[in-house]
């Protein structure tokens, strides 16, 4: 039952390659069609298609035309096309370029909004990706983001430091906060073998209650009001804007770029990163080769937590400017999908973060202009990731050739 | 334990005196700390001098009423503290003698500790409504218990199910919609398992057919269910709430006689049919898992699929069936959020309970009864946190709510006995 479909799957001992008997010669066309990025592109296409079906199905005008479908089927298709294209065009205008805008500034602002939305996704996604490459499943992005935000935010409004230095200290605090939260999970895994999935899920909940508790304490929030939110972070601690006023793009984006380069260097060029990948590929072999698996586990989780903490810091110091109960949003889980879409590669994660950031920014415009709820974005994103996780399925849908040789996903 | 003693003996040839296992200090230390906390923090320095705490047991129509119990806060906490210190001493003495203590010991210790805690927390704050506290705890545990049973059936057969959260949410959604459309809460109850099973179909399709990492699938499925249900909620359900999302509540069915027992009756036997179904599901699963052919096969494919395959058990087919059954159970549990509590559907209303159910399953060591106990613990802590924060006690509710999660971390890290997952958990099986 599985032989035909599971070709080239990385997971367990795969059965003999079903494409083997023919052994077609690798050609350029075949490379393109069987390549992993082709799967990504097609997955995005199918994801949007599924979203379109839902959008059309939930639309009242489409439902009305369905009532007399057999007498005038054209009405139905016209209605579907109008509904779906309106929604997706609004999505595009909200995410990339708004050609209906009054001024040039307004026309290009959506693109910068996508970048703003992508910053925390990229940072937290890099943390998750680092874990994946090292064989660790870090579901704790949520808690690490919250801890990073708590630390960075509190330093941001509690301390008084000169401009610039304050920002750096606050960012460093966010890194420390996330690293502590990730480090707990890493240390427990290294010392006792506690499953990191469960520990990080628990740490997520604990972080949620922690921020709820802290935001009820006046010594912490320093806002003077009863609302569960903190004072705004000082000007000196805020991430400086990269563009003049109507734009919200801030230095957080530079942080995301730097973090991407750093993670790339760490994974692909450093000795430590080599150890990470060795443990991720085969912990037993790594142990035999003299790598301390426990130490790697701990360090990976610390760095992963630090990256997620950085995402929290970017949120509180850049976009939000104050601590709220919802500061973490659903970033931790979004980051997992970002890392999966990026195939756990730093650059891939960066691009996936940009795409999902664009979805997020465009989703708000779509919701405001066409009334299509932004929740459809979640559907599109999860379908994309589901398909990307199962390349044979995508190849099956589009009758693509299986990749030649090993290692192709 | 026994293996470590054997290795000790193996390393000392010559037949010397048998080596004794090292003293297990973990429990004496935990008991000691808790006893001291009770004696000092709740008792002597608890700031409860002269105040009193009232526990009320009444719940309307009892067969015979128990009068409320009023105790002097400080005297009670100090007395209980002294008893706990004595118990900790006994535990230490037994640990030094390497003797095991029965399960009653930690339970008695826990109940006494809780009693002292409640006495301290409720001092001077009116009365502690014990029966509603317990009844609410059971209610909050319902989705956790269903979810934990779902996870358990899956993981016992070797499939990790992180999508419990999504299955609960899907069950809640379909239960609300069907109950509202048919105007009958029981219709929702019948529909809910199908929603959970539908999520399970996708899970098994990707996990068992395409060998995709089960944790990845679970995480993504959660997002997918949140997306689909929220989208439909914002469009279809809000366009016509009277038709699609009207509140339908399962009625409370008191069981005659049993429901009239004071305290226990209202807690256990004055509930909706969903809770009674839950009792049945737990009992049936416990018996089936350990005393039936199905259970033996399930455990076999979860522990050693190759061996199971060798004796002719179709591994993947059984896994698919079990994952579907598990999904149906979780879907049913999801019905608690809507028809079970008499609420309309709301976005993301499962609010992370599926993950807590997962933790309850692990804390319960993949055993139905253990998982139920853990789920009740979570439910109780949550309800206690809510109750105490509305009473205006000195305990911060948010910190109290963290407690079960911290306990779970300790449990997973091996401080509360080893927890061991089924051996083939999360590994796709391919016939060689």
TrEMBL record, chain A:
<keyword id="KW-1003">Cell membrane</keyword>
<keyword id="KW-0472">Membrane</keyword>
<feature type="transmembrane region" description="Helical">
    <location>
        <begin position="197"/>
        <end position="215"/>
    </location>
</feature>
<feature type="transmembrane region" description="Helical">
    <location>
        <begin position="139"/>
        <end position="159"/>
    </location>
</feature>
<feature type="transmembrane region" description="Helical">
    <location>
        <begin position="249"/>
        <end position="267"/>
    </location>
</feature>
<feature type="compositionally biased region" description="Low complexity">
    <location>
        <begin position="10"/>
        <end position="22"/>
    </location>
</feature>
<feature type="transmembrane region" description="Helical">
    <location>
        <begin position="165"/>
        <end position="185"/>
    </location>
</feature>
<feature type="transmembrane region" description="Helical">
    <location>
        <begin position="348"/>
        <end position="366"/>
    </location>
</feature>
<dbReference type="GO" id="GO:0005886">
    <property type="term" value="C:plasma membrane"/>
</dbReference>
<feature type="transmembrane region" description="Helical">
    <location>
        <begin position="296"/>
        <end position="317"/>
    </location>
</feature>
<feature type="transmembrane region" description="Helical">
    <location>
        <begin position="37"/>
        <end position="58"/>
    </location>
</feature>
<protein>
    <submittedName>
        <fullName>Ribose ABC transport system, permease protein RbsC (TC 3.A.1.2.1)</fullName>
    </submittedName>
</protein>
<keyword id="KW-0812">Transmembrane</keyword>
<keyword id="KW-1133">Transmembrane helix</keyword>
<feature type="transmembrane region" description="Helical">
    <location>
        <begin position="114"/>
        <end position="132"/>
    </location>
</feature>
<feature type="transmembrane region" description="Helical">
    <location>
        <begin position="323"/>
        <end position="341"/>
    </location>
</feature>
<dbReference type="GO" id="GO:0022857">
    <property type="term" value="F:transmembrane transporter activity"/>
</dbReference>
<dbReference type="InterPro" id="IPR001851">
    <property type="entry name" value="ABC_transp_permease"/>
</dbReference>
<feature type="region of interest" description="Disordered">
    <location>
        <begin position="1"/>
        <end position="22"/>
    </location>
</feature>
<feature type="transmembrane region" description="Helical">
    <location>
        <begin position="372"/>
        <end position="390"/>
    </location>
</feature>
<dbReference type="Pfam" id="PF02653">
    <property type="entry name" value="BPD_transp_2"/>
</dbReference>
TrEMBL record, chain B:
<feature type="transmembrane region" description="Helical">
    <location>
        <begin position="276"/>
        <end position="296"/>
    </location>
</feature>
<dbReference type="GO" id="GO:0022857">
    <property type="term" value="F:transmembrane transporter activity"/>
</dbReference>
<dbReference type="GO" id="GO:0005886">
    <property type="term" value="C:plasma membrane"/>
</dbReference>
<feature type="transmembrane region" description="Helical">
    <location>
        <begin position="320"/>
        <end position="343"/>
    </location>
</feature>
<dbReference type="InterPro" id="IPR001851">
    <property type="entry name" value="ABC_transp_permease"/>
</dbReference>
<keyword id="KW-0812">Transmembrane</keyword>
<feature type="transmembrane region" description="Helical">
    <location>
        <begin position="399"/>
        <end position="417"/>
    </location>
</feature>
<feature type="transmembrane region" description="Helical">
    <location>
        <begin position="215"/>
        <end position="237"/>
    </location>
</feature>
<feature type="transmembrane region" description="Helical">
    <location>
        <begin position="69"/>
        <end position="96"/>
    </location>
</feature>
<feature type="transmembrane region" description="Helical">
    <location>
        <begin position="186"/>
        <end position="208"/>
    </location>
</feature>
<keyword id="KW-1133">Transmembrane helix</keyword>
<feature type="transmembrane region" description="Helical">
    <location>
        <begin position="29"/>
        <end position="49"/>
    </location>
</feature>
<keyword id="KW-1003">Cell membrane</keyword>
<feature type="transmembrane region" description="Helical">
    <location>
        <begin position="355"/>
        <end position="379"/>
    </location>
</feature>
<protein>
    <submittedName>
        <fullName>Ribose ABC transport system, permease protein RbsC (TC 3.A.1.2.1)</fullName>
    </submittedName>
</protein>
<feature type="transmembrane region" description="Helical">
    <location>
        <begin position="159"/>
        <end position="180"/>
    </location>
</feature>
<feature type="transmembrane region" description="Helical">
    <location>
        <begin position="133"/>
        <end position="152"/>
    </location>
</feature>
<dbReference type="Pfam" id="PF02653">
    <property type="entry name" value="BPD_transp_2"/>
</dbReference>
<keyword id="KW-0472">Membrane</keyword>
<feature type="transmembrane region" description="Helical">
    <location>
        <begin position="103"/>
        <end position="121"/>
    </location>
</feature>
């Amino acid at each position: 039952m599985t032989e035909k479909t599971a070709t080239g799957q990385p997971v367990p001992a795969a059965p003999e390659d079903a494409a083997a008997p023919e052994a077609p010669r690798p050609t350029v066309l075949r490379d393109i069609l069987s390549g992993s990025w082709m799967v990504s592109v097609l997955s995005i296409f199918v994801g949007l298609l599924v979203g379109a079906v839902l959008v059309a199905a939930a639309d009242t005008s489409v439902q009305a035309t369905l009532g007399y479908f057999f007498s005038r089927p054209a009405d139905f298709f016209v209605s579907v096309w109008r509904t779906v294209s309106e929604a997706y065009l609004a999505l595009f205008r909200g995410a990339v370029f708004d050609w209906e805008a009054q001024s040039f500034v307004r026309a290009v602002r959506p693109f910068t909004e996508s970048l703003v939305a992508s910053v925390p996704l990229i940072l937290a996604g890099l943390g998750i990706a680092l874990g994946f490459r090292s064989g660790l499943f870090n579901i704790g992005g949520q808690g690490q983001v919250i801890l990073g935000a708590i630390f960075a935010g509190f330093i941001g409004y509690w301390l008084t430091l000169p401009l610039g230095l304050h920002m750096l200290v606050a960012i460093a605090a966010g890194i420390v906060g996330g690293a502590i939260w990730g480090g707990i999970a890493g240390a427990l895994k290294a010392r006792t073998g506690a499953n990191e999935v469960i520990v990080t899920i628990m740490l997520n909940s604990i972080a949620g209650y922690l921020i709820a508790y802290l935001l009820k304490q006046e010594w912490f929030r320093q806002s003077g009001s009863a609302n569960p939110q903190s004072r705004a972070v000082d000007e000196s601690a805020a991430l400086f804007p990269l563009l003049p006023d109507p734009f919200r793009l801030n230095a957080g984006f530079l942080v995301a770029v730097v973090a991407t380069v750093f993670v790339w260097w760490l994974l692909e060029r450093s000795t430590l990163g080599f150890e990470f990948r060795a443990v991720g590929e085969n912990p037993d072999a790594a142990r035999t080769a003299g790598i301390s698996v426990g130490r790697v586990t701990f360090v990976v989780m610390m760095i992963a937590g630090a990256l997620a903490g950085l995402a929290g810091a970017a949120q509180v110091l850049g976009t939000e400017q104050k601590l709220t109960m919802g500061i973490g949003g659903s970033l931790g889980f979004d980051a997992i999908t970002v890392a999966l879409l990026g195939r756990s590669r730093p650059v891939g994660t960066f691009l996936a973060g940009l795409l999902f950031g664009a979805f997020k920014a465009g989703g708000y415009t779509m919701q405001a202009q066409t009334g299509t709820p932004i929740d459809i974005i979640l559907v599109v994103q999860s379908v994309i990731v589901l398909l990307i996780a199962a390349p044979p399925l995508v190849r099956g849908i589009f009758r693509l050739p299986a990749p030649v040789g090993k290692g192709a996903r | 334990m026994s293996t470590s003693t054997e290795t000790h003996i193996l390393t000392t040839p010559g037949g010397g005196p048998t080596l004794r296992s090292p003293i297990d200090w973990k429990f004496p230390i935990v008991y000691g700390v808790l006893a001291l906390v009770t004696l000092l923090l709740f008792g002597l320095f608890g700031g409860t001098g002269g105040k009193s705490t009232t526990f009320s047991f009444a719940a309307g129509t009892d067969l015979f009423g128990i009068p409320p119990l009023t105790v002097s806060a400080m005297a009670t906490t100090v007395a209980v503290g002294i008893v706990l210190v004595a118990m900790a001493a006994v535990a230490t003495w037994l640990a030094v003698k390497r003797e095991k203590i029965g399960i009653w010991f930690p339970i008695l210790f826990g109940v006494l500790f809780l009693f002292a805690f409640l006495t301290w927390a409720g001092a001077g704050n009116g009365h502690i409504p014990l029966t509603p506290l317990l009844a609410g705890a059971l209610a909050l545990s319902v989705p956790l218990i269903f979810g934990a049973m779902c996870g358990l059936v899956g993981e016992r057969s070797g499939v990790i199910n992180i999508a419990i959260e999504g299955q609960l949410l899907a069950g809640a959604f379909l239960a609300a919609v069907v109950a509202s459309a048919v105007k009958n809460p029981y219709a929702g109850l019948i529909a809910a398992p199908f929603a959970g099973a539908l999520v399970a179909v996708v899970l098994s399709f990707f996990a068992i057919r395409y060998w995709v990492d089960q944790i990845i699938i679970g995480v993504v499925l959660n997002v997918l269910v949140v997306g689909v249900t929220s989208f439909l909620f914002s469009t279809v359900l809000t366009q016509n709430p009277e038709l699609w999302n009207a509140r339908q509540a399962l009625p409370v069915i008191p069981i005659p006689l049993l429901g009239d027992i004071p305290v226990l009756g209202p807690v256990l036997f004055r509930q909706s049919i969903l809770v009674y179904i839950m009792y049945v599901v737990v009992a049936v699963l416990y018996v089936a898992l350990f005393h039936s052919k199905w259970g033996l096969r399930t455990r076999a494919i979860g522990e050693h699929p190759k061996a199971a395959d060798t004796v002719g058990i179709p591994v993947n087919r059984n896994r698919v069936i079990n994952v579907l059954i598990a999904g149906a159970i979780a879907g049913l549990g999801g019905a608690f959020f809507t028809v079970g509590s008499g609420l309309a559907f709301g976005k993301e209303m499962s609010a992370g309970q599926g993950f807590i159910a997962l933790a309850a399953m692990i804390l319960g060591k993949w055993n139905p009864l253990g998982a139920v106990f853990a789920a009740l613990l979570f439910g109780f802590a949550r309800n206690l946190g809510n109750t105490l924060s509305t009473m205006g006690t000195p305990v911060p509710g948010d910190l109290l709510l963290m407690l079960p999660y911290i306990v779970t971390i300790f449990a997973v890290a091996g401080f509360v006995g080893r927890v061991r997952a089924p051996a083939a958990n999360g590994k796709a099986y391919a016939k060689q």
